[in-house]
Amino acid sequence: MLRADPDRPDPPRPSLDRVPELVDDARMSGSDATLTSTVAGTPSDALGRTCYRVVQEGLTNAAEHAQGADVRVGCPALRRCPGPIAPPGLRSLPA
Q: I need a surface site. Which of 54, 63, 90, 93 has the fewest CB within 10 A?
């Protein structure tokens, strides 16, 4: 049975505020990656994790299949959303 080391801190969770780190890591790996937008409002944890994973996958694909290409990462739809951000299906769920 695998057990977590109690002295080892949990790794950071994927979230939208960690997307700039992904872009920086891609740049440090030789990609010409640029973050082109910021987000207004506070996304839900689920949406933040989803955005992180989508950007992560996109940067991985660019590194594997488009070496040397300019890569621009942006979330223009999120940039226009005021206030808390949640996927539309979650807004209609009862509290």
A: 93
Query: DSSP class of residue 18?
Result: G
The ranges assigned to domains in the chain are: 16-80
| Tokens of residue 40, six digits | 């207004």
What is the reported pTM? 0.70
- The SS3 of residue 43 is strand
Per-residue pLDDT of the chain (95 residues; tens, 9 = 90+): 566 677 888 778 888 888 889 999 999 988 889 888 776 667 788 888 988 999 999 999 999 998 888 888 887 655 555 445 444 544 444 44
β strands within 1-95, DSSP E: 32-35, 70-73
For 72, half-sphere exposure in the C-beta direction (CA atoms, 13 angstrom radius) is: 6
